[in-house]
Amino acid sequence: MRKGYKAMLDEAMQAIVTLTPEQAAEHLNKPDVVFVDIRDPRELERDGLIPGSFHATRGMLEFWIDPESPYHKPVFAEDKRFIFYCAGGLRSALATKTAQDMGLEKIAHIHGGLSEWKKAGLPVQDWKPKDKK
């Protein structure tokens, strides 16, 4: 193996902006900020999410960001600041680096992810998928 996940994380952490949960919380409810939850649906069902978050599973991220992809999501073409998070901050660090490499400029991730967010006593809401009543 040429490069493992630890080396990839080290590279990402040197290149991206990392916010503490408290710093990220200062951006809640701002119209020019989108919190992006990259966890899978089982995690959202089990643990909830940061209020108002946009859900983009890690496996589709590159396709949803690229405007030339048939799966492109218009939210990623908006002039907004994107704050990525996952459960513990590892996947979101890699996702943030990827999104940055793809051209998103105002971007950061939350150190420690949703786990640290919850430990800080910050708000979490239940996830209600669109296809469930």
UniProtKB/TrEMBL annotation:
Highest taxon of the lineage: Bacteria
GO MF assignments: thiosulfate-cyanide sulfurtransferase activity
All copies of domain Rhodanese, residue ranges: 29-126
Pfam families named among the record's database cross-references: Rhodanese (PF00581)
Stated name of the protein: Rhodanese-like domain-containing protein
Species: Ferrovibrio terrae
